[in-house]
């Protein structure tokens, strides 16, 4: 007898009356199993299904066989231990509305492909009360989806939760008034053409203003025209360059009034639900110009005789969850931003200043709420145990990295002197032990120095420096890594939903590409899907100090996957960790705030914990914050490019030492190590040979001579053209091509490919 599945997400899916009538040998039908999976996507593992239908013993073996049959038949698919109908939508999905049916009901497709077949159609429910979102054709929405029973209609219905902001066809540019009185738009994107603005479409813009314009349809002759929509500010003001990136990447930078009002109304946290740790001399160690301090550290030898030479390391993190509660205006805005964005001339914070720089900042000598982890390590760096605590703390000192390092190196000052023996030396002793654990773990060790742009008061570039990498930096980094691991381990042990920080191993395709490249240098990389960071470290160690050290580091970096956030765990390849979650920066990363809420809920640490509704949305939240992270990185990179291009605009025809940072068929990208900025050298300007692109060797070489240029080569270049607002620079190569080491085989292979390409109809080569 078929039985009705209620679709509830907890417990047995049958009603109490039905359960009373079910015999001990009850087994659900295939349709009942499929319906349960469709209606309970978050509880669709084998154990969940067995529990829902009260299956035990041999019935569980029977269920396992049925589920395997359904997978073999292509009816079900398995993703991270959860089963789903092939082509099924998640319970919360991003949809694109594409039209209406005969009755005027909106229809949508999933924004991302969910199967190899036709995408399912979703009919969109619109609130009759008019209180909910009112989407239209062309909108992208976040919606809850529900499978339907109607075989002749849409497979799903959807209830809209949010309408995403529309991107218009508007573009950014700088308004310029030419000598003849005409108006032009100087592009801020490298591929954007220059535009003409007629006087009637000036819209109050003045020379040097950053404007948003709407291009008109291009004519057959001359430059396209445009009209000014909005004036965003003057480029003569400070912070104008980062404003371009903020608008170009749609980064929210102005807090709504309700968010500001909510932050101002927040009252300081009290000792309720907290341990009093104010006498523990935790200290903060940060960059000298840091405005907020979200982590503090302390260490002491372990007094336990069973752990000789061991240490207890403590990390305390600002308790943002005490002030930013799920569903509030503060929380919604923080999720929308996803993270703080750091430009050379400004910070676009995730949280208002009242929260980030005041109530949550672990200021010296002031009571502050924190979530702390106390970790015990053996003398060899192995973590024995850890525990989390919700505390009230008081920072004993605010130190800068160089200041703390100087004290350890024998030059203490008035602040570090009194705490040198009691606080700083025990921290460095603990770091020495944690380093042993790191050495045993063997994370990926790439040598990639970071550059920092120093600005003048007017916002222009003063100089570019490579800050020294101190043990103080490494100490804080390793303490934070261990705290992040402890957070992930605790939440997983408590079976609490969380967002992991995951980093996949390099794909098989990237591994093979790297292997082919290394062969051109006489280096080998073992085959196999189970790569280890230590294998890459072995390659890097073999080239340490060699001429091709920078080249190999660069290519190994490019072979790596991109880290992201996910509610499913695949480990962190680069750090060589099985479990890892971001816990240590909740002021500037929403992912960390989720982890804090999870710990509070899992450990019963008081109010502000993760709710069931929030836990159900973690997959979508992880996608969103992974996207905002990539957006921030792109915006930061674009701003650096524009600042450096503007800085060098007065140095046309100057010579620079450079390093080849990219090789393509069309030319070479070069980076100026002194400035960390990139420019381009077109292949057509390289000189009297026909240059062939060798993808395996990452090189361009001459067909006639075999000499050429390779990724990471050090060369001399001349600056010939700069487009400051686009952040683009063009260079001329001054260094002669050279024989490429280990490239004989690659030379003949690439030459053969090039000739084969030229013999095909329509193919052309570029010859100088």
UniProtKB/TrEMBL annotation:
Per its record, the protein catalyses: Exonucleolytic cleavage in the 3'- to 5'-direction to yield nucleoside 5'-phosphates
- Disordered: region residues: 1-26, 735-768
Q: Which SUPFAM superfamilies match?
A: Nucleic acid-binding proteins (SSF50249)
Checking Pfam families in the record gives: CSD2, RNB, S1
Could you tell me where this protein is found in the cell? Answer: Cytoplasm
**Could you say which EC number(s) this protein's record lists?**
3.1.13.1
Instruction: Kindly state one GO CC term assigned in the UniProt record.
Output: cytosol
Supply one GO BP term. Answer: mRNA catabolic process
Residue ranges annotated as compositionally biased, kind Basic and acidic residues, are 9-26
Q: Which CDD domains match?
A: S1_RNase_R
* MF (Gene Ontology): exoribonuclease II activity; RNA binding
Q: PROSITE patterns, from UniProt?
A: RIBONUCLEASE_II (PS01175), S1 (PS50126)
UniProt keyword list: Cytoplasm, Exonuclease, Hydrolase, Nuclease, RNA-binding
Q: What class of enzyme is it?
A: hydrolase
- The main location class comes to cytoplasm
Family from the record? Belongs to the RNR ribonuclease family. RNase R subfamily.
PANTHER family for this protein? DIS3-LIKE EXONUCLEASE 2, RIBONUCLEASE
The record describes the protein's role as: 3'-5' exoribonuclease that releases 5'-nucleoside monophosphates and is involved in maturation of structured RNAs.
Q: Output this protein's name.
A: Ribonuclease R
